[in-house]
Every structure is written in structure tokens, then in C-alpha cells.
């Protein structure tokens, strides 16, 4: 439903989106598990060169495991394991921006044990502790050399912590609302590795074949409010608004070597806070089939002057379809598909700003996400 | 589920983010007979020589290849190609020291000479003048002649091998003319541009190079007031022909306004030279005004040339005035100062500077007021590539600077361009052509070209 989940409790993902809603689930134990594939494709057209480059197809796998259990009438506990952020950007290795980025990849895994308490019949609050784990790869060519196989590769894993709190309320059975706040999470890569391949002898001293790498990835804090309305017995509509505090993401800096500042590669980010709106509808067609449809609008946090090929984002308009097939009241298979259409972004490279690694051109991005999962209650 | 998967795969194909490149477009320009006129950059002189490898990356040719893309027809540009190999001889990298000193050696094995003459009175001391193999296509479209001077465009016989023994014989002009031809460069340009549809022009550098490279010890190329006045008068003469009195479109690339942005001077400034010797060392030069007086190197505008830098601080055996010999480090002792040939001192630099500033100003004035053609590397307004590169630039993630070898902009002679540097210059010219004439010519990707034409 376009991810409109802050006040929507029929999907266990609400543990992640609003821990406050957990206590409002019924007394059963619920488990929901699934996998998804995110396919972000971008094409590039060089402003000056008129050259085209298409990102290689590299689906980013993801998944989720949500579980909830009511301890008593008032208290429920839950666990959310999912992959909320990530990208896998692969450009052809000899494209125009090869010295900016050839491949950039980030996988994240968020583990969130959660507890929620009912204050009264209609209100509940909840909180979760977030442990985040991330894995990154960044590769670019050292294009100052003639040989095309001179590359730098940064790899590393990191972890970080955060929390998530939420409030859920409903009026009678018709209208529900939720509000949640997720803290920012910083993934600290302390023990990464920088590898330089095939550097000519003249500069071998400048690029040690292998060195330590430190960096940090900032995941934004987010404030979300949402509502869900049972318009009829069979039809439910939801609306969500999220404000993500990307603005703490100032730059992505890779520190290479043991001494601080020995060698750094900094990419200015200077993200802006970004809003997202999501609306969704769910229609219980029969005991067996429930259909969902959603629409979303995600503002990009990336300013015009900082569009880089590692993640050329744009304002995204998305549509989604979903279906749950209930083989019994307790077992369902859930499938969903989302398509997002990003507005074209044009980056203007200013060659006299030698510290900014950028390539001038227009990025056009389309994102496809498909998910398939299983839900069981007992 | 199956439906979702099907819908998904359909969407994958129908919603791919393909873009179409806009077709290149020459706008109002006709590139069918583009003629390039000028000196070293236009000719593709690189690494201190003219070789076939260097000519493959001449400014004239790189531009014409992009022009051809815009015109939608293959490039028919003709160049006075040297036979493959050593050409006129060239510099190769011997060492780049950890301190950043560039040391080169000259490759002369297999040099293609048709004749030579050791001229005892050559510019800056005895030198050998050569005659090189004649171009198979005389009067080609690339009329670039290394070291051609504005002061010489009217010199009859400048490119006639019969004048090999004369001080100002230009062997690179000789190659472009039929044997024994007495035509001056201006006459050659007049003939070569007769049916031209577009021009590129770059002159001025050739006028100051001989004097600069000789450390100011070249009286036959002294850029004095008379020479500067002649340059001013001659640049109008040649531009009248090149622009067909303002009726032909084209583009002009100026020589650097600040000659000390060229690494051949910049690498020999006092700051950089001091880094090559001990901090306690004082560098001594033999000045030009007052002549031959030994003085400490000036804080500004004394420039040690590569030949001097290579020897700076090295022990040399000198003969003492009172007889006997001593081992004294070169350039850091009053008794063994840098020789005048190894230094372009502040007075000499000021002459070079005045000449280049005057001629560039004159070209800008004529281009703006008379011919209405675009100019790059102006002192104010527009793109000045030399200026940008002196502060380091980043092209698609690759840094370019005047640094030897690693900077990838200048070739090993430190005043002409490496292939990638030529591409960056060509891109600036294309950008200006597109802006000025409303054309849509694609630019080059400099990062795909070799860092050195000999590699």
C-alpha cells in the first residue's frame, strides 16, 4: 500500500513503522516472513559528451521477518528484522564517470526487538531498540593512469544502534491513527579495507595495495504520522506522512590508512530533509483474497549540486499493487509489486571545483520492487 | 503471484529508463573545410618534438573529429604527418624524483632528418638545424607550424631548405611547402584557407618560446618594442586572411596570458626550486640587468629552466679566479651561480609577459570588434583553461594540474599539451563554439585519451 503503515495494523510490518501499534494486534502469535528484490535502474546521458550509459541490472535482495506475541492483555512483544536501506549501483566499468564510481553498494539489516503496552482499549504505546548492521562496497577507477584496470575498492562492514517509539490510537473501530519517531542510525565502518589494484610503479608509494578504511553512513531519523479509516467493512484507506531528517548527512568521507587524514576521499552530500506522502487502500474481496493498492510520493534529499552517480536519486512517484491469498484464516501468502518513477536529475559538473567528484549529465531512474511473503498466525 | 511476477517483468521491459542522446548539430556552421592555423598546439607538437604519435592528438585534429560528428560526415582533415617513429626527436621520462623534479632524456635514435647544419650563431648558443621529411600532402588543412612566429609571417624563404643555414629557418614550415618553395607563412595560410569554411587559430606562443626556452639568451627572438609592434601589425594581417576579413567563422585559442602558469616556468619558481635544495641554501643566479651580476634568486619572476633544475645543488668542479679548482654545488654558491641560459630572470620574464599580454589583448580586440569570433583563454570573461588548470581541475573524477607527469595536462616539455590536455582545451573551445554560434558539438572525454602521446 505504498508503505502507508503507521496506522495500519493488518500488516506485521507495523512493528517497524510504529511500535506503538503492536499491543493492538489480537492475542494470537503472528509471524510474517518474506523476501524482496529491489531493482533500481538508472540511465545517464552526458551533458557535454552526449554519451549514454546504462546501469547494469543488479537486483538488490532484501527480506523481512516480523513476529509478534501477546504476553497478556496489555503487553505485546515483537521482533522486526528487515532491510530498510540499500542500493547496488553498477555502472559499466568504462563509462564516462568511471573515476567517480564504478560500483557502489550498501546493504543494511535492521534488527528491532520491540515491546508495546496498551494504555486503554483505544490507545497503546511502544518502543523498539534498533541494532543495525551494514555492509558496503565502493569501487572507482583511478582514471589518471592509462591502464583501464587501475581501481580503488573500498569494502567494510559496520554497525550502529538506535531506537524507535510510537503511539497508536483508534476511535471505535472506524478510524485509527499513529505517530512514530525513529532515531537516526549511524553505521560506523571502523575496520574496512581499501584496496588499490594495478597502480603503476611510479605511484605505488601513494597507494598502498591494501590499507585500513574508516567511514560512516548516516541513516536518517524519521517522524511519521498516519491514519487509517475503515470506510466500509471491506474497504480500508490509509494515509501516511513521513519527514526524514536527512540533513545530518553532510558528506560521505572515506578515510584511508591508519593515521587520520592520511588519505581521504570525500563526497559532499549536504542532503536536505525529505518528505514522503503515501496513500493506500485495501479491499477484502472475499475470505480468500485481499487486494491492495497504493501510491506514494517521495521527495529526494539530494540537492541538485550533489547528485552523484553512486545514488542518483530524484523525487519519486510510485504506485503499488498487492494481494494476500488466505489459504486459511491463519495462513496467507502476500505478494506485492511497486514501481517508482523518479524525476530526471541533471547534475552540473564544475571542473574548476577539483574536490567535487561529479560528472555532468542527466540521470533517469526507475525503481521496481517485488516482494513475496508468508504470514501465519497461531 | 504469478500475475504479479508477470506484471513485474512486463514493467521491467516497458519502464526501462532509456534516454536518447540529442543528435549533434553543427547549427549555422559548415565544417566541411575546417582549416587550423597556428603554432605548437595546433600542430600537435608534444614532448618536445613533432612525431606522428603527437600529431594524432593535435588540437586541430581533435577539434575536427568532433566537428565531423556534428556535421554528420567523416572527418576529411588532412595533416602534414611525420613518418611513424622518432619524428623530430622527443623527450621521454627519465625520472620523476620524490621531490617532484622532472628529469627527461631526448630520444634521437631514428630521428628523421633529411639534412642538418650546426649553426654556431643559433638562438641561445650553437644548435643543430634539421630538415625533416616533407609532408605527403603539402598545404594540408592543418597548417599548424611549431614555433612559427607572428614576427615572421611575412618572411620569404622561411621554409625553404636552401635557407637552412640562416638563423630563422623553420623546418616545420619547410615540410608543408613543396621543395624549394619560397612562400611565407602568410602566403601559405592565404592559399590554404582559400576555400575554408571554418577556422581555428592559435598564435603568439611561438613568438615568445625561443626566447623563453633559451633563458632570454636569444637576441634574434628578443621580444622588444619593435618586435611587439610587428606582432600586433602582423596578427591583423594573418587574421584578415584566416577570417576572410571577418566573413569566415571560427574560434581563437589564446596563448596563456600568464606565461608563468606554464610548468616550464612554474616548476622553476623560487618556492619550488628551494624545495629541491636544503632550506638553508641560497640560490644564486647571474642576472641580465645589470648584466652578469651574481645575485640571490628573486622572490618573484625569476624562473629556473629544466636544464638548470636538473643540475641545481649538484657538485661541480669549477676553476677558481686565482687558479686551482674547487668542488662547488651548482646554483647555491656565489662562486657557481645558475648560468644565464638556465634562468629566465625577472627582466626577461617581464619582456615575455609584455609581448604575450600585448598580442593577446590585440587578438581579443580584433576578435570582438572587427571579426566577431569567439576567443578562449581571455584574461577576463569566458573560459581560461590555463588559469583553471593552474588551480587544478577535476574532469569526471580525474584531476588535472600543471604537475609534471601526474598532472596529465602538459606534456614532458612542460609547455605543450599532453593528449588529454589538448582534449580539455578542445572541449573549452567546443563549449565556446556551441555558446557563440548555437551549435551542438559533442565534447571529448579526455580521460579516454593517453596521458602521453608516446605511450
Overview of the structural elements:
- The complex is a heterodimer of chains A (378) and B (455).
- Chain A is mainly beta and 378 residues long.
- Chain A has one domain (14-377): Porin, CATH 2.40.160.60.
- Chain A is built from 1 helix and 21 strands.
- Chain A is elongated, with a radius of gyration of 23 Å.
- By secondary structure, chain B is an alpha/beta fold.
- Chain B has 2 domains: 34-263 and 347-448, no CATH class; 270-343, no CATH class.
- Chain B has helices spanning 2-14, 40-43, 52-55, 59-71, 171-174, 185-192, 205-213, 225-242, 263-266, 270-274, 306-311, 346-371, 385-390, 419-437; strands spanning 34-38, 90-96, 102-107, 115-119, 127-131, 198-202, 249-253, 284-286, 294-296, 303-304, 315-319, 325-329, 343-344, 375-376, 393-395, 398-400.
- A 4-stranded parallel beta sheet of chain B has the order 1-6-7-14.
- In chain B, helix 4 (59-71) packs across helix 14, helix 7 packs antiparallel against helix 12 (346-371) and helix 8 runs parallel beside helix 12 (346-371).
- The N and C termini of chain B lie far apart (58 Å).
Amino acid at each position: 500500500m505504498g508503505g502507508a503503515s503507521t496506522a495500519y495494523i493488518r500488516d506485521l510490518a507495523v512493528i517497524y513503522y510504529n511500535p506503538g501499534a503492536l499491543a493492538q494486534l489480537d492475542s494470537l502469535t503472528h509471524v510474517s516472513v518474506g523476501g524482496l528484490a529491489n531493482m533500481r535502474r538508472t540511465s545517464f546521458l552526458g551533458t557535454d559528451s552526449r554519451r549514454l550509459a546504462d546501469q547494469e541490472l543488479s537486483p538488490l535482495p532484501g527480506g523481512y521477518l516480523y513476529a509478534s506475541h501477546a504476553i497478556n492483555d496489555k503487553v505485546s512483544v515483537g521482533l522486526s528484522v528487515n532491510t530498510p536501506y540499500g542500493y547496488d549501483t553498477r555502472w559499466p566499468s568504462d563509462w564516462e564517470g568511471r573515476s567517480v564510481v564504478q560500483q557502489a553498494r550498501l546493504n543494511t539489516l535492521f534488527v528491532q526487538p520491540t515491546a508495546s503496552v496498551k494504555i486503554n482499549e483505544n490507545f497503546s504505546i511502544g518502543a523498539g531498540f534498533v541494532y543495525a548492521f551494514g555492509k558496503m562496497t565502493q569501487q572507482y577507477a583511478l582514471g589518471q593512469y592509462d591502464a583501464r584496470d587501475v581501481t580503488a575498492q573500498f569494502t567494510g562492514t559496520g554497525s550502529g544502534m538506535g531506537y524507535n517509539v510510537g503511539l497508536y490510537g483508534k476511535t471505535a473501530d472506524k478510524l485509527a491513527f499513529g505517530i512514530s519517531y525513529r532515531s537516526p542510525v549511524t553505521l560506523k565502518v571502523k575496520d574496512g579495507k581499501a584496496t588499490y589494484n594495478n597502480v603503476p610503479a611510479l605511484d605505488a608509494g601513494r597507494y598502498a595495495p591494501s590499507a585500513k578504511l574508516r567511514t560512516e553512513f548516516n541513516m536518517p531519523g524519521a517522524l511519521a504520522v498516519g491514519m487509517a479509516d475503515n470506510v466500509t467493512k471491506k474497504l480500508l484507506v490509509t494515509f501516511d506522512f513521513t519527514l526524514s531528517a536527512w540533513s545530518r548527512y553532510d558528506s560521505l568521507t572515506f578515510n584511508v590508512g591508519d593515521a587520520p587524514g592520511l588519505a581521504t576521499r570525500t563526497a559532499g552530500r549536504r542532503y536536505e530533509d525529505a518528505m514522503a506522502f503515501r496513500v493506500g487502500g485495501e479491499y477484502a474481496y472475499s475470505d480468500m483474497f485481499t487486494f491492495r493498492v497504493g501510491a506514494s510520493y517521495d521527495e529526494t534529499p539530494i540537492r541538485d549540486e550533489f547528485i552523484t552517480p553512486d545514488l542518483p536519486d530524484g523525487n519519486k512517484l510510485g504506485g503499488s499493487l498487492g494481494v494476500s491469498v488466505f489459504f486459511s484464516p491463519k495462513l496467507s501468502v502476500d505478494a506485492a509489486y511497486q514501481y517508482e518513477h523518479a524525476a530526471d536529475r541533471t547534475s552540473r559538473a564544475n571542473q574548476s571545483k577539483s574536490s567535487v567528484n561529479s560528472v555532468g549529465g542527466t540521470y533517469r531512474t526507475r525503481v521496481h520492487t517485488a516482494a513475496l511473503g508468508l504470514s501465519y498466525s497461531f | 503471484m504469478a500475475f504479479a511476477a508477470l506484471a513485474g517483468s512486463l514493467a521491467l521491459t516497458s519502464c526501462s529508463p532509456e534516454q536518447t542522446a540529442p543528435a549533434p548539430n553543427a547549427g549555422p556552421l559548415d565544417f566541411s573545410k575546417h582549416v587550423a592555423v597556428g603554432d605548437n598546439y595546433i600542430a600537435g607538437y608534444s614532448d618536445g618534438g613533432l612525431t606522428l604519435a603527437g600529431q594524432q592528438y593535435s588540437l586541430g585534429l581533435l577539434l575536427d573529429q568532433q566537428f565531423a560528428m556534428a556535421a554528420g560526415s567523416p572527418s576529411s582533415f588532412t595533416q602534414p604527418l611525420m613518418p611513424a617513429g622518432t619524428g623530430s626527436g622527443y623527450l621521454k621520462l627519465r625520472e620523476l624524483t620524490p621531490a617532484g623534479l622532472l628529469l627527461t632524456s631526448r630520444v634521437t635514435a631514428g630521428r628523421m632528418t633529411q639534412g642538418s647544419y650546426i649553426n654556431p650563431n643559433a638562438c641561445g648558443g650553437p644548435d643543430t638545424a634539421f630538415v625533416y621529411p616533407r609532408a605527403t600532402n603539402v598545404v594540408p588543412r592543418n597548417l599548424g607550424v611549431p614555433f612559427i612566429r607572428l614576427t615572421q609571417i611575412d618572411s620569404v624563404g622561411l621554409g625553404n631548405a636552401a635557407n637552412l643555414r640562416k638563423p630563422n629557418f623553420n623546418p616545420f614550415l619547410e615540410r608543408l611547402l613543396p621543395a624549394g618553395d619560397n612562400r611565407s607563412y602568410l602566403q601559405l595560410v592565404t592559399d590554404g584557407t582559400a576555400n575554408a569554411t571554418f577556422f581555428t587559430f592559435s598564435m603568439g606562443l611561438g613568438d615568445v618560446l625561443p626566447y623563453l626556452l633559451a633563458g632570454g639568451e636569444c637576441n634574434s627572438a628578443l621580444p622588444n618594442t619593435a618586435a611587439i609592434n610587428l606582432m600586433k601589425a602582423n596578427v591583423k594581417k594573418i587574421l584578415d586572411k584566416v577570417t576572410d576579413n571577418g566573413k569566415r567563422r571560427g574560434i581563437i585559442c589564446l596563448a596563456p596570458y600568464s606565461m608563468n602558469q606554464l610548468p616550464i616556468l612554474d616548476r622553476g619558481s623560487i618556492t619550488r626550486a628551494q624545495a629541491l635544495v636544503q632550506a638553508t641554501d641560497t640560490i644564486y643566479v647571474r642576472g641580465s640587468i645589470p648584466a652578469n651580476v651574481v645575485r640571490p634568486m628573486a622572490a618573484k619572476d625569476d624562473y629556473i629552466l629544466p636544464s638548470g633544475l636538473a643540475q641545481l645543488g649538484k657538485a661541480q668542479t669549477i676553476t677558481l679566479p686565482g687558479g686551482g679548482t674547487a668542488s662547488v654545488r651548482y646554483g647555491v654558491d656565489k662562486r657557481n651561480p645558475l648560468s644565464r641560459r638556465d634562468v629566465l630572470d625577472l627582466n626577461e620574464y617581464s619582456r615575455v609577459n609584455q609581448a604575450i599580454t600585448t598580442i593577446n589583448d590585440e587578438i581579443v580586440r580584433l576578435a570582438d570588434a572587427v571579426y566577431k569570433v569567439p576567443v578562449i583563454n581571455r584574461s577576463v570573461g569566458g573560459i581560461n583553461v590555463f588559469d583553471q588548470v593552474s588551480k587544478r581541475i577535476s574532469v569526471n573524477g580525474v584531476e588535472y594540474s600543471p604537475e609534471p607527469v601526474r598532472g596529465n595536462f602538459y606534456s614532458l616539455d612542460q609547455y605543450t599539451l599532453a593528449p588529454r590536455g589538448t582534449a580539455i582545451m578542445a572541449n573549452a573551445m567546443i563549449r565556446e563554439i556551441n555558446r557563440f554560434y548555437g551549435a551542438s558539438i559533442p565534447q571529448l572525454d579526455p580521460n579516454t585519451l593517453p596521458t602521453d602521446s608516446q605511450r
